[in-house]
Structure formats: structure tokens, C-alpha cells
Specification:
Layout lengths: L25 H16 L2 H21 L4 H18 L5 H17 L3 H16 L10 H14 L4 H13 L3 H12 L7 H22 L1
Helix pairs in contact: 1-2, 1-3, 2-3, 3-4, 3-5, 4-5, 5-6, 5-7, 6-7, 7-8, 7-9, 8-9
């Protein structure tokens, strides 16, 4: 059974996912920059409290812009990252809520923020445990991640998360190719986030290459 290790998401990768600056309003840009500082520059023992505060900011932005997809995506990204920091079964309610928010965004504008909805949902589906604990589903993960690549084929995040998925599936050669593609992705003019993600990609690529030896 998979461990509940989220980006994050991801990581999660990271959302998770990080669209270009030009695609975001000043309010969303502020959320994303604060997220990057928390994820990549904040001591581990302070991240949960800061992410909880940031999630409240995201919720306020969602309420101030009803019917808009982008704020929903960022609230989902922040909650997913918070779940990853908390870990364990207690994080499942957070990822369930993140999934709901991302699905709402998908219904409004599926290609918003360079396909970040697809990347984020795909990341959740392969990192969250499957039934009977969670909603994880590798088939759905692959479908969403491939949709993300169709929208943004040269993007850093869709290639990184697809590579991470392939690595978990033990498709090492394909994973390495995806990581290499991610490293060659254009800069997004977000120094903290870009540097942090590239470091994650390099580590993942090195790990994959070691598994191929």
C-alpha cells in the first residue's frame, strides 16, 4: 500500500503545479510566491502553521471571486501541500477537499493555468492511497497527467509529475526522459519556485538513473 506522501505535490508536488507569472492576477501571484517561500525556504517545523494561514487566504480569494477557476486551483494546491506536511491518515480530509476544489475548477475552465488542474488531479490520484483508505487510482492519474501534457507539453511541472508517476510504475527509461524534458523547460520568472522544482527534478532524475543501472 502506498504511503501518503504528497507534493507536492508536490512536492506535489508539489502542486503542485506552478503556472507562469503572466497567467496570474496579483492576488494569485502573492499566494504562489508565499507558497514557494513556505515550501522551499521555511523550516519544516513552521510549515504547517504557515500553510494553514495561507489556506485561509486562498479561501478568502475563492469567496471574493466566485465562479473563477484559478483561485480554486490554488486553494487545492495549498491544501494538498498542507496534507503532505501533516502526513498520515489525518491528511486524507485535506486531500479530499483539495480534490473537490480541483474538480470544481475543472468544471469551470479545465485548461486554466496551463493545465494545472490536470497535473494537480493526476498527482493526487497516484500519491494518495487507493481504496479502502483513499481515492488513489493509477489509471486516472495517468489519464490526467497525459491531459496536462497535451495542454502544456513542454512545461516543467507536467513533465516532472509524469516522470515521477512513471518512476513509481517502474518505467525508468520513460521516467528519465520525462525528467530530462522537465529540466529543459522554460523558466517561469519565479526564482524561488523554479530553483526548488529544478532541484527536485535533478534528484528524481539521479534516482531514476541509479535504478536503471
Amino acid at each position: 500500500m502506498k504511503n501518503l506522501k504528497l507534493i507536492l505535490f508536490w512536492s506535489l508536488t508539489s502542486l503542485f503545479t506552478l503556472p507562469a507569472v503572466a497567467d496570474m492576477s496579483p492576488e494569485l501571484l502573492s499566494l504562489s510566491e508565499n507558497w514557494a517561500r513556505i515550501k522551499y525556504q521555511t523550516p519544516e517545523d513552521q510549515r504547517v502553521a504557515k500553510l494553514e494561514s495561507l489556506s485561509q487566504d486562498a479561501e478568502s480569494l475563492v469567496k471574493a471571486h466566485p465562479g473563477e477557476a484559478a483561485p480554486l486551483v490554488w486553494q487545492g494546491i495549498i491544501l494538498s501541500t498542507l496534507a503532505g506536511e501533516k502526513g498520515g491518515l489525518g491528511a486524507l480530509s485535506l486531500v479530499n477537499r483539495a480534490k473537490e476544489l480541483l474538480e470544481q475548477a475543472e468544471a469551470i475552465e479545465p485548461d486554466v493555468l496551463d493545465g494545472s488542474v490536470y497535473t494537480s488531479l493526476g498527482s493526487l490520484y497516484y500519491q494518495v492511497p487507493g481504496w479502502p483508505i483513499g481515492f488513489g487510482d493509477d489509471d486516472k492519474a495517468q489519464t490526467y497527467l497525459q491531459k496536462a501534457l497535451a495542454v502544456n507539453p513542454d512545461g516543467m511541472d507536467p513533465n516532472y509529475f509524469y516522470g515521477d508517476f512513471l518512476m513509481q510504475e517502474e518505467e525508468y527509461a520513460q521516467a528519465a526522459a520525462a525528467f530530462e524534458h522537465a529540466l529543459n523547460a522554460p523558466q517561469r520568472n519565479r526564482p524561488i519556485a523554479d530553483a526548488g522544482r529544478r532541484s527536485e527534478i535533478t534528484a528524481a532524475l539521479n534516482k531514476t538513473r541509479s535504478m536503471m543501472e
